[in-house]
Batch of 3 targets.
Target 1
Amino acid sequence: MRRHGSPVRALMATFVAAIFFLPLYVALANVFKRGDLITKEPAAFPWPPTLHNIIAVLTRPDRLYWVSLTNSVVVTGLSIVVLTVLSAMLGHYLARSHGRWVQIVTLLLLCGLMIPAQAILMPVVRVLQATGLMTTLQGLILFNVGYYIPFGVFVFTGFIRSVPVELEESAAMDGANRFQIFWRIVFPLLRPATASVLIFLGVWIWNDFLDPLVILGPGQGTTVTTGIYRSIGQYQADFGSVFALMFLATLPVLIFFLLLQKQFVKGLTGGASKG
Amino acid sequence: MGEGLIGTAVATGRARSSSRRRRPAWPRIRHFLGFGGPGLAVYTCFVLAPILISFGYSLTNYNPFNPPTKYVGLHNYRMLLTDPTFLTSLKVTTILTVIVVVTPNVLGLAIAVLLDRRGWLYNALRSVFFLPMVLSSVVVSVIWTRLLDNDGPINQALRALGVAHPPGWLSDPDYALYSLGAILSWQMLGFCVVVWLAGLQGVPTEQLEAAEMDGAGPARRFWHVSWPLLAPALTINTVVLMISAFKIFDHVQVITRGGPGEGTTATIAFVVLRTAFEENRGGIASAQAVIMLTIIATASAVALRLLRRREVEL
């Protein structure tokens, strides 16, 4: 059991955290501040607070926020669902089969964990152009699936190894086929792994900037991140709107994070302690 | 993690195949195609094939708007070895990587030691440090661009404190790269805090109490009891930070666009994308990408090996 901290430690910790939080405080304060005050007194507390910036973003005539939000929800949602299904099945195959073939596939997937998207984007664009998927949401979703599948597979493979194989063997004896066994018996047992995959990939894909920027292309479609990027150029002086847009774009992830914080941390710290 | 996985795959593969009768070919293939097929097909189209295409393009003068594409051998690589833009990007990326590997690691450990106590206050403070990890790099970049603006809050505060000419954090070529490093460190700090804290929680209280009874002060307790047990946390932090630092693109694109001046903050990832999509020099961009991949693979393999050896020795 760890000890409770002394008052001095509590004070010091709070002080350090407050300094660390300052940038976010300034950003948050500016969401609720009048435009002219943002440049004049950026760090002042927003009093009286105004909802003007938020309303301005929500009611923009070109509906930038709503379009971006819809695109981000569609891309993130479909990507993580397809990723979970495909990587759980591939992970199951790799965990339960043996031989040279399995080693080769594992090794190939391992390479993918390290490859930065920047290094392969140009050929990816060629592939998408050849299949007519360039500048489409489907194209972006397919790329996300291919790019993040190694992560999903390794989370699932590791987890499936800890599930006793006898369960599957007895179900096979009762005459169930492989798909039935997997979806009815194995998959429901993988809940913690599924949660990890959904949470991490959800946040990564929601926050992804480079891939939508290149694949959706200029002007065509925006996700929340590319929407923010484009609006910095447009507004120039109107930082109130930019901060409001960022706030609204981050809100879904923020809520997600606050609800699932424990699982998030658990997933991150898998191998961080010895023994 | 990776090496362990291969290790187990190899070990179990050998143990089982000798004792078990092999299933007939067709059900095996059907099983593979049914479970592995869809995932591997997408992975092949969007990752494996592009890697091979990159290798291929790197040996040509490929330019989508200037056909025909011809084989030029190693010409692109030879050219890059003396190309000032590319060499600068290697230097910039190296400096950034050193900053990003060292700063969040060191500060993160200090903060983790400070926060390693029970109670709601410490839980809440932990979330504060973790928050930037779930923010998009675009959001973080825009926030810091405002903060570090020549007339932004930070310089306003410095002026109020009597600094007549505070530096142009992002507009001065001498400062911009280090400002970028500071921003990245701020965003990555939370990750390190979480990993260090998990490591600290794995240190058995009995050992710490035993050391205390033997008269060891806090510093010696940390150094002799906790620190050796934190080796895996150091490995994770270092490798993850290194890989993330090597591919920094978003912050550069949003905050500095490679400037101010001649490529003072242009990282390899930024240069690869600019060469590919703005200059349309596909062959050169592919050669840059291949070099980038080689560096990342080598550096993380070496780091992993060194740190793992240290883990065993401790």
Target 2
Amino acid sequence: MKLKIWQLPILFFVLSITSCMKFLEEKPDAFIDPDQFYKDEQQANSGVVGIYATLSDFNAYGSFYNMSDLPSDLMEPGYQGNQSTTSMDSYTFDSNNDIIAAYWRVHYMGINRANLAINKINLMEGNINPAIKNQLLAEARFLRGLFYFNMVRWFGKIPLSLNYVSSLDEVNLPQSDAATVYETIIGDLTFAGEHLPESMPAGRATVYAAKTLLGKVYLTLGRWEPAVDQLESVIGKHSLFSSYGDVWTNANKNGKEFIFCVQYKAGIINSSYSVNFAPRSSGIQAVQSYGEMAVETGFYNSFAGNDARKQLIRTSYPKYDGSGTANFNKPYSFKYFDLAEGGLSGVNYPVLRYADVLLMYAEAKNEIQYGSVEAFDAINKIRDRANVNLYDVQNFDQQSFRQAVWQERAWELAFEGHRWFDLVRTGQLVQTISQTGKQIFERNKVFPIPQREMDVNKLLKQNDSY
Amino acid sequence: MFNVFFSPKIRTLAGMLLFSCIAALPVAAQQIQGQVLSASTQLPLQSATVRIKETGKTTLTDEKGYFTLTIQAATDKVIEVSMVGYQVFIDSINNKKDWIIRLSEEIQQMADVVVIGYGTRKKTDLTGAVSSVSGRQIAETPVTSMEQFLQGRAAGVQIVNASGAKPGGDIAVRIRGINSINGGSNPLYVIDGFPGVGDLSTINPGDIESIDILKDASATAIYGSRGANGVVIITTKRNAAKRFRAELNSYAGQQTASRKIDMLDATEFAQFVNDVRATDGLTPIFDNPAAFGKGTDWQQEIFRPANITNHQLSISNSNDKTQYNLSMNYFNQEGVVIGSGLQRGNLRLYLENKATDKLKFGVNFNLSETFHDQDDPGALTAALTISPIASPKDKYGNWLTNNELASFYGASFYSKGNPVALAESVTNQFKKTHAISSVYGEYEIIPNLKFRTMAGADISYGRYEYYQPKGTPGNGYVDNLGTASISTSRYLSWLNENTLSYSLQSDLHEGDVVAGITFQETYFNNVSATAKGFVDDHFKFNNLGLGQIQEPSASTSDKASLNSYFLRLNYQYDRKYLFTFTGRVDGSSRFGADNKYGFFPSASVAYRLSEENFIQNIPAISDLKLRVSYGITGNQEIGSYSSLAKLNGVYAVLGDERQVGIVPTSIANRNLRWERTGQFNAGIDAGFFNNRVLFTADYYYKKTTDLLLNAQIPYSSGYTSAITNAGAISNEGLELAVNAQAIQGKNFRWTTNFNISFNRNKVLDLGENNEIITNGYLFYFGSYSVARVGHPIGMFYSYQNAGIWQEGDDIKNSAQPGARPGDQKIVDVNNDGMINANDRTIIGNPHPDFIAGFSNDFSYKNFDLNILITGSYGNKILNEAYIDYKFPNGTTNITRDTYRNAWTPGNPTNTHTRMGADIAPLTSSMYLEDGSFLRIKNVTFGYNLPAKLLEKTKLNRLRVYATVQNLWTFTKYTGYDPEVNLFGLNPLLLGYDYSFYPQARTFLMGVSVSF
């Protein structure tokens, strides 16, 4: 049959309708479908790398002082412009504080990344070396344990998500009580401690990182014997630098004393610790310093005069351009100092350090029984390096030694993200903060659940008195 | 042929000679002669019909508008001159021999043809709500953008300034309010039949013949999926004159910042810093403030008188077979802030050829090249906060660095960068090549049945280039190492549309139907790279590999497709009752696998009362029509792949090297579907006094449901938000437009256009939550807006100020026990005895009560004057200046008002806080300002050279004109410009200001010549 010209458009219409559903299919090129991934070892590894990538986020460990040293007796804001920060220091924050919400958000982002990796790697069979599989699982569970450990200490009852969230029906979770969360953490870290190797590329978790962290978890829970067990297996595996100043040099980055550090590298992932800890616009860096964090004068004055650790807190410093010395109106910590030229800085952030292991060990041993030689040896290693007098078992009892270890932790580990947790763990928070003249309440032993989270997830209950 | 310009003497002589011949004849024949001109343009009118009423004797005017006619004085008494598009001229001859006849244009609006989706329609036959702005209305005033073309001239259309008044900045059009929260509220743009053109900044406004704005569902539903925010149809210039025309239009002028903020000078600043220290009991830091004199006026340093020029040449011709229009344009606008500006070159061709009686082809081609020099966004903020004691350069001519700038006030001063260095030495530019082209063919299969197919592409290639030289004091904490970036993008949208149309006509019935099928596919690819640390500034962004630090390059890929089927039926009975039905089925790739397709129907009916005898008996009423419509339209403007779960890359440093991690970034929503807007519209069109006065009123109610909402989901899921369908929002409004030819004298004419629009927005539902609170903060200081059920979207949500704490007030027992006299007093909204985030409340409305435009055209003989006034009433603006240049803590410069009226024990004001290093910025209603304004947007004064003078030349027309834009603004607002929207198009954050780019006042002189 000869096609008439007027039939052409009709034919065209009919033909065009047929292939339409395919026309509307979406096949993204720049992203990938979760179901298409975790097919081999390299993919599994990249999933785990993604969890590590969470750590350097500004609201994970990028500004960890905001949730640890600032709400303590060690630090105060370097200037008064930033309401969110000043309220963390003055305990005037409420559930609308954006720093608290950001920490909540980023930690759960890391947890979801870990959950995806754990779920998916668990299902991998045949396309991955079993040893690698367990190592990757152990890393993912170490990191999930770390995130949950921070979260449960900050917020108490929290939603406990152990599975990758893939659909909108799964997003609302109720809170679990702290004990349940701790069970998960212990399970994750125990697994990590069994499957992680002794040595890993810098920044990846080792067996010692897992055991140190698990020791810390047990210490937090007051389970002294298991804490000692974990910590003892680390003792001797790492060691202290000979001088306190050496801990903070670029040459010793990832050196023998560091057990687990958040990794930065200038120009790749810049650390903001150096600009945030240097006095604002003081001219001491090759950059306009930000000056977020200053040292509280009371803490500065608590050091013995010759304490090596005090040398890393300064009230003046030579200007970068050689035009003289900048004098500060407050003391500032120089642990993280570098010139940060053009904002480039590769200063790491120590999450777990051997000095912490020694002090935790001393504390746990003392709790089991006063007079442990190992406890005094441990703390004296720290004090010896700091050029301060050594402690003698004759001069203490269990209570005063306990206090001494706690105080040593403040001096040794200041600005490294321990103080608020230590104050809460040891029951000193309210008393210590009150002594600095701030108004603080019992409720402040945990932070408020972010209001935004309360608004979105109706299953949540706010912490008491917030 | 007689020439009217012969001297009277010769004419008299000739007349006498003629008379002496004619006198001998029995019947007195005589000749009349004259020229026919357009009353508005003073141009000669060719082919006008000159007719003697009694005898029907007829002649046509020649190309210069001249005519001669022999008449019989005894019988021929009345002359009629007529021409399509003009009012008929009738006069008694009364022995008058020489005529200059000026024809007034017909009051066009009613006779006009309106361009609607997939067709055109006579305005009288419209059943929907459509506003039209024709090129004729604005041809006499220069405009720099398509949006400026529309501003103040169409009811229901709001122009939103999304990036300040900078050249080439984002300007958005809002039609009948905000429908969507995350789906975008931009209308669909259709240029010469090509829907979905993304970027309009490359369109030359001088090419625009008309813009038709489809507002109600009856008009927009034919564009179904993309019609919910209204449709803007742009038609470019043609030539229907059937003769060769060449036009040259040039203007040039200068722009200046229309307003400066009144800041402290150096002496006052030094005194202010001393005063702040004194409040803390500190000694003065500056011993002799007067020694600093005036210091640096930083605004002066970064503002400049900026040039603007435009040249346009167009040639066109048409005959029965072929029509073309070719135009070229060059536009160059410097910005009033140094380092900003826009250059644009355009080439456009329209060509149509009738191959046979049944078949025609055509092409629309628009090519443009833009060069957009962008100002550094930090420069203005830096200029307003920096110490006036400092200067841009040191004595050796080097830029002052951040640390040096900070030294002009103690350690806590934080420099936001050297404004002049930022503006002058930073290269920040965007180049774009953009082509919109389409070809079409139309074939008449049988009489009245036409098939039309169109294929086209919207293609652009963009390149962004950035270089911040070494040592530039930047606006972060970084003094730069030399940073170079390049980003290039390719955008391609291809389209194929096929329609069949059929029309039928009888005495009583008239109808047409159009059906179509379309395919459209859009691709976007982008690649960007950044490197830092260059040996020398010479290389800029031209040799990125030389950077010491190579940042990871990035690339994206995006694709979306649309497939649609549509049908429209028009039917009218006896020219009285008009019906329109449309339906469109749209499929979009962006939605969930189960919900790709949506159906969007509409129906409307109009009743032309003026066809009824009882109305025709009222002489004053020349036209009267009632319209009602209802329909559903959709919105799909979300990103591609929004319904899918996605993994994307992040990176970490592990083992001292960069490693890539693949992580979940979004959650799946297979049910994602179309946002739907149901709209009811009722309107009236009326003409009075032979349509000299036209009146249009429309009432509408729009309800948008299944909002494409970027819903917040619990952070504990690992995600922040997901695009879902939840919630509803409504817009209800009234639009009035009046067009009157108030005075139509022979010499003096006055036409006025007035329109006013009222829109009331209301959030009806937000899914599981009652409200969405959005932080419009800059630098942590919370200033919030809320979308709350029962209120308009984007209400300001912060503390309610109750004045200032005064000495003697019982502060200790108040809800703010820590406050000092001079601090803000905040209302304890929930009465719990403390002020915290729970005391935030709705403090103001960013939406205007109404917006209006008022345009007046006057002409007297050859002079013409256009005045356009635009205004907005009742909207509030939150000027975030209170976090820095109105924040008297001594770390930034501040305004004179903030300093001089600051609270002190001796000045117990309730409107300004105290000074002090310890004060904290606190967002409250105190900083909310009235954003109402009345602006004399445009004044153009023109003069057409008389035809007499052009006679000896080839010129048809020569007009010179002078224009002032933004002549004056009446407003109480204290920022640069009340037409401000810091967060651009984000409907959740409306009416914010933070040192936004100022409006320019522009003086232009121009000439247009046509041959």
Target 3
Amino acid sequence: MLNRIFGLETEYGLLVHQDRPDHSPAWFAHKLRDHIFNVQRRGLLDLHHRGHDEPPGNGGFLTNAGRMYLDMGHLEYASPECNSLTDVVASDRAGDLVLQQAIDELGWADDLSLIKNNIDHETDATFGSHENYLVTRRFPFTRRGLGPLVTFLVTRQIFTGSGRVGSASPQDAWIQVDRLIVPRASLGHGSDRAPLPYQISQRADHIVNDFFEWVQQNRAIVNTRDEPLADPNQYRRIHLLLGDSNMAEYATALKLGTTGLVLQLIEEGHAPRDLDLNEPVESLQEISQDQDRQWLVQLQSGKTISAIDIQEQFLAAAQTHCRGQDEETDWVLNQWEAVLRDLRGDYTKLVGRIDWASKLWLLESYREAEQAGWQDPMLKSLDLEYHNLNQGKSLYYGLLEEGRVPRLITDSAVAIAADHAPKNTRAFGRGELVKHLLAGGSPSEPDEPRPDERFFPAYVINWSIFQVRGRAPFPMPDPFRTYVQDVRSHLQGVTT
Amino acid sequence: MTHIAMPERREGPVDPMPKQPGPSEEGGGPKRPDTGSPEKDNLLKRMRKVDPKQAERYRQRTGE
């Protein structure tokens, strides 16, 4: 899409299918990572400390220029920078493919499943699917400027949610009120919750703030950490952590595409106004949990309006200002319109395209066949199985096998995206670097290192800069540039 | 398998992604689920194979 770089970060859950497993999930996660880097040689492990929780060897960049690593005990995959929805969907699915292939090669398919979801029903643990959108530095990143984005994000879950059985316990969170950080409970929010059969979002229960910079506690609708991973004078990275991991390619594309267009509307001053929500965090949870799927929210003006009506106002603005700018934009506008229309009717029309609808239909089918109540613990297990990466077991892939799921890309495109970076972003240059070093191009230890080289590892690779020992740092501040010829020139003569 | 038309990526690696067949103007999507179909039987068969205890076994840490 026009002038947009997309990225997705996915934390996977790991399910060991044994009553008394010989090893912990973390042990399996380490072995999978080691297999991917050391046996399959899909990438280069970091040789340097990336942070306090990322020691050398914790993870690294792949030949597709994305990253695979361990984070808080989870295997996590970050896609490379993508300039199109097709690329980001393929790159996201590539992470699933790489991990499942590692499980299969290790002969663990019966022992282990990777689950692409965001919750643990039993412990209320949550883990993320983070979206990244590059915007210009002129983006109005203020509470007022971000108002339309908050409204859009709170209401988009009607087509981006992955659905879940039940709800999380009230979150023990601290939130920012004016300049004070206070316990959320002190404001009387989130104290009484009746058990829920089903809700449309996995993450809504875990979002407790509208704006905040942290990611582990006080998760916010808009994360305010300023870390562009690019030239900070030109760019800002909008980092969102309120979304669910999607299994449906269609839902992934629609989520990123509609959000990208709304960011464009805000950048250009065309976003609908007067739609600021009275209580965005409460609205997020109320929409998700609304069993009647009326999805009503109250605006600051006092008006009550449905999430579908709000989305239609954003769609109308995008139709006026963005229609015709490129093929992907028009695809997003067409599908956005179709989904909003279908959401006004029977939810089963959306099975295959929208994850919460697919999962709900599966669970209702099971309940009907087995005469099971919503409190049947089997439903939580089926909920997990929807997200299994193992195509022979996964309920999502079962739907796909039965011809109920539209595809946006082919399996061959996913396989290509697992090995190769998109060729129209900075990822291309980084992918060339990783391939060069993997092919034996890592600089050898100098016999007589200069003092400043003595402790320098053979390579240091980050999103916006890299350095190989003996060479000057190579900055890549512009994600829209491939840098590929410059990278190739820079690496000439770098061999073992 | 149903495909929804989506633009080709502009500069795909190695071989470009194929143009997807099928109209999308009506929202595309799969056929509407019905009851008692063979497909539904297959899905129910798959669901019945799921370990009912796996949600209990799935003990994850909070991440980010």
